């Protein structure tokens, strides 16, 4: 009886609250419907496949960045790390009979081995980020900004600023291939998504991460090894950039020092849109996916509507501002 | 209790932990607490303004793409 009385008193569906919490998503869905109604080929399988293929690497990067954001950090080196990973993959996976091969002496390496090597290298960069932030207490913004420039310099050095191509077929198939109608890239993204879902919700690491983001001092007092957790988060982020770079390289069919430029801001923006709070301690994998999708659908819609890319950048900027304002609104309401 | 609270305030102000260990300072750490007092109402107005601006940008972009303006 009491239960039924309680359920009667349950808050009714608040349309205003729902609209304000999901304003960006509603706007983007409306834009997609408008684009679909006014242009040809928008609601097609090919376009959906393009969307999935574009979203996959960005989602992987955003998953990597999300851990840093949840712990009140950030990772500005993400984009350049993706570029370096793409270049390293390119070096190892150029076709043996390609005339302009960067390292002619390099043996033929299977792509899974190359992927593991790239992940180890980028994981090491992530570890350096994590150690600088957690042990040397350098603010994440500055530490990762420095790492961004260092990685770019290293990338320029090892590639001699030369774009690379001539990949072997097996590597290109990673991006272009599919199992039935499902592209391999989507499979990679789904595996990463499920892994992060498990990691964030079912493991001690996930609980520690949210605890650090909520209140670092309290987490430390409660027995959380903050340093080790932060280093693990940045290593994992580095590995995700490696995977994303590997996939971006395969998708583009080439790599250069410009690969991945600006991806970090897109990833941070997608996380913010997806509900990862700039105040730390909050963020879900589903939200991150929604954030990446919103950003990508906005771009695709404006491309279909033949809008000048300059307007697209302005629209993207406004979407980020709205997302942060909505996050701040939630914080103020809780306060 | 009061003493404990005072200690914590000093700790927060100085950004240090006991034993002289420096507290990690993030650019985002307490970002919302550091903002001046804002009411939800004024924030709602700002969000509405941004949404109008977003719609305007898209509309202008589409109109210019179709050479209407």
Topology summary:
The complex is a heterodimer of chains A (335) and B (69).
Chain A: H1 2-8, H2 15-21, H3 23-38, H4 45-70, H5 78-92, H6 111-134, H7 140-159, H8 169-176, E1 178-179, E2 182-183, H9 184-202, H10 204-214, H11 216-221, H12 226-252, H13 263-273, H14 285-304, H15 309-334
Antiparallel strand pairs in A: 1-2
Chain B: H1 2-14, H2 40-65
Question: What can you see in these coordinates?
Answer:
The complex is a heterodimer of chains A (335) and B (69). Chain A has a single domain (45-334), classed as ABC transporter involved in vitamin B12 uptake, BtuC (Orthogonal Bundle), CATH 1.10.3470. In chain A, β1 (178-179) and β2 form a beta hairpin. Chain A has helices at residues 2-8, 15-21, 23-38, 45-70, 78-92, 111-134, 140-159, 169-176, 184-202, 204-214, 216-221, 226-252, 263-273, 285-304, 309-334, and strands at 178-179, 182-183. With 335 residues, chain A is an all-alpha fold. In chain A, α8 packs across α12 and α10 (204-214) crosses α12. In chain A, strands 1-2 form a two-stranded antiparallel ribbon. Chain B is mainly α and 69 residues long. Chain B has one domain (2-65). Chain B is elongated, with a radius of gyration of 23 Å. The interface between A and B is large, with 40 and 33 residues.
